[in-house]
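Teaching assistant here, posting this on the class forum so everyone can see the example we discussed in section. The complex has two components, and the goal was to see what a joint structure prediction looks like when all of them are supplied at once.
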Amino acid sequence: MSTRTEQDLSQLLRQFLLPATLVVVAGLLVVDLFRRLVTGAVGTATLATFLWDGVVFGMAIGLAGIGLAMTYSILKFANFAHGDYITFGAFAGWMVTFVVAGLGDFSLDLLVLVSGELSVADIGINVLATPLAIVLGLVVAAAATAALALVVDRIVFKPMRDADGISLLIASVGVALALRHVLLLVFQGSSRTLTTDVASVSVSVGDGAVAFGAHEVTLVVLAAVLMIGTHALLQYTKLGTAMRAMADNEDLARVTGIPTERVVRTAWLLGGALTGAAGFLIALESGTMNTSFGWELLLVIFSAVILGGIGSVYGAIAGGLIIGVASRLSLIWLPSELILAGAFGVMIVALLVKPQGLLGGVKTV
Amino acid sequence: MSEPTETPATRLLAWLTDGDLRLLSVLTVSLFVLVWVLSFFSGIREPGRILSQIQGVAFIAVLYVMLALSLNLQWGYTGLLNLGVAGFMAIGVYTMALLSMPTSAAVPGLGLPLWIGIPGGVLVASLFGALVALPAIRLQADYLAIVTLAFSEIVRLVIRSQEAASFTIAGTRLGTGGTDSLALPTSPVKVLLYEDPSQPAAIAAASPTPLGDILFTAGEQIGASPAVMESLVYTVFLLVIAVAFFWLVSRIANSPFGRVLKAIREDELVASSLGKDTRLFKIKVFALGSGMMGLVSILWFLERGSVTPATFVPDLTFFVFVALILGGSGSNMGGVIGSLVFVVLLLESPRFIRRIIRESFDPPAPPETIFDALSGVDPLLGYFTSQESISALRFILLGIILVYLMQQRPDGLLGHRTEVASNVDLADRQQTEEES
């Protein structure tokens, strides 16, 4: 009897009170934003800059999240090594970019190690000055990370296909620790600068201007192209259909004659390539990297993927954009140190209200 | 699987695993003999300094034993994957600091005595445990893992932020010290040993209490400084608390409450079908375990005298997991044994081995890059025995061990360990039923 009442209460809390509170809080924030805009405490240009930064960050997180969502939907476990795949991709790609851009003028050793001792101004890498080096780096980042994902799957996850999601999760924590510290051992810990300043297009907005940097635009455009490509692959190819089928029901997929092991390999291949590309582009946009930046992004990516409904590729993209824009907009209210804490908070609240995610329930990979 | 042939080795193993206590004592003795041997070969030969090394390792080992026991309640018994261990530890120790730091300190607290500060820290840690468990109740285990990890990062980021570094509530200035190291109240052991405990150890040692005097004189005989003796007393004090932890967790495991926890781990649906409100059980056990983690962290850093937020990165949580999984989660003795093995072999021995290599081969200063290191044996040795490289190698080894354990020995090194879920012998009860 009492349990019944309790259940009703928690039902009420979950389905009505919490969402209602959220709506009220969101409403208050919007009102406050308008007040700040009207009083001039926040300029329209500042707001537009926050929005653009949010879109850039969101596209990066969304792209990085696709691989995580893909392997989650097919293998049914949260891959904690995903962040370090991002780092790996970035290092593999930037190694090539540095070698292509600086060969002949600088010591090969330092170029291969993307060493912080190299003077960035002298190599002068940016997307306008050395487009070939950047493109080659991007391709290698994708290829190398896809290869890494396949190798790790073969060694670590394949022998555990029958294990439960938790054992796989813990094993992936092991992979994450080992991979990150192998990178640390080889490349060493110092943060390195990668690119020189690059031209940007200024668009005047209200009381100021928003600058669209070439690297930011590159990231957004390439991420969008890769996302559309992934969408086409999933929707219009036989392989994509097989992947979606397996995400929906593995047993059913198997009895229909879908080679499940091949689908798993494809998921790693595709997810790995997208992850590596994301790592390369994130480093390009921020202009710096170190051996732990992917790990530090992992929780943000998880937040995005969970917000969109873990296991849904489209959800990952949508979640990434929401987290990206929300985290940058939150700068209006929060000090920059606490943005990440805010993003994680959003994820926890989202789980409370809608554990299946925004696009959850529909498992279309 | 074929029957193993009987050799002296297997017979010895059978004898050792016959009783848990016997295994534990033999293992502890051999691990600490190993520490002794390692410190001897790394050039630490005086009894006083060896005692100091053994004390240092034992201190960390006892802490991990307690952490593993707390985690065993949540993960081992109930199957709640808590990746926020570091967060609850941070909450415990920082709450204690906020409550008990003197109001006159550089980063002031409320100035309350420790007997309020310590329970306060534990209480707040367990309250947050309950709070985090709330959304987690209905979630799958992997969501819980992500939520708890995110929670622990939120805690760490908030503690190190400028806003928390120093703030004022109702006219009282408080703070966490931000990214800097935060001084903590004087440890109770210092109060026990020194007349003037708030002074630095070197000055305070000049005026010991009668008890301190006895211990310090004894220490002098083997060349152990008062600081070593003080830490030794602290470690013994921790050991007593660890035994209490073990007793508590074992009591819980064998109580009706503990049986429900195990039922939740095995099949939550069945447990709730039997009329158990599994959500309430989960919240309770999460709060209890988190409070215990808070206590461990308070005790840990009271001895150290200060604390920084950088300690509470997720790696700390993973360490505790490796310790528990090594011995076999779900078993308290497994947790204890796993922690001892983890701390001695994985956490502490690398720095001895590094010293031994450096002492015996005298490698050159670490080369700048790994390519320079590959130019010969000596530079290679120099590169891999640098402080950073040893730490990285340790993490790589940990990662490989985690993967190996999950693949080959998911039940831990000792293999599957069954714990009787009932506190009365079932065979016994059957007999009684027959008689009546």
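For the discussion questions: Chain A has one domain: 43-353. The two ends of chain A are 41 Å apart (CA to CA). Think about how each of these relates to the inputs above.
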